[in-house]
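User: Predict the structure for this protein chain, please.
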Amino acid sequence: MKIAKEGFLFIAPSLALAVLLLTVGWWPLGAFFLLLAAAFVFFFRDPVRKIPEEERLVLSPADGKVLKIDTLPSHPDLPGPVTRVCIFLSLFDVHLTRAPLTGTVRRVDYHPGKFFPAYKDEAGEFNESNSLLIHGEKVPVFLKQIVGVAARRIKCFVRADDRIVRGQKIGLMYFGSRVEVCLSPGTTLKAGIGQKVKAGESVIAEVEP
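Assistant: Here is the predicted structure, written as C-alpha cells:
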C-alpha cells in the first residue's frame, strides 16, 4: 500500500517509540505507539484511482460524504448563480485532494481562522481554509479545503499559474476536514446529498456541451 510521504513525519516517530518501548519491556505503552503508527499508516494511505476519461466530467476533489448542496446567488470569483457541493471527510477517509477538472490554477489563497467541527455550517465560513480558483477549458471552478476540530493543517501541492489535470493530487488535509466545490453555470449537477464519493473517481457534475 502506497503512503503519502507527508505521513512519514507521523509514522516514523511513533514506530521508533514503539520499538524502543517494546525493547525495554514496556509492553502496554509500546503497544499503544505501535497501534498509533498503524493508525497513521491507514490515515495517510494513497490508493490508486482510476480517473474517468471523459473530459466533460467534473470529479469529486475529495473522499467522503456529500453533506450539503445549495445554490449561491452570487460568488466573488464565479459567474452566478453557483452550485455549492460540500463534502465531509471523516478520520477514516483518504485525505489527499485531487483536481476536479483539467485547467489552470489562477489563484491560491490561505485563510487563517477558527476550528469549528467540519460538519457544521459555520466551518465553511469561519474555519482555517485554503482556496483554489481553477479555470477549466470551458468553465471555472472554486475549490475550498477546510480544516475542522482535529485537522489543523492543510498542505497545498500547487501554486498560481500551475497547469493541472483531472484527478491530479493537489493537496492534503490532516485529520478530518471538509471540502467545498462551487460550480459555475454551464455545469449539470450529478451528485446527491448523502452520496459517498471518491476523489478522482466519482462524478459530481458534467460540463454542458
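The longest strand covers residues 64-72.
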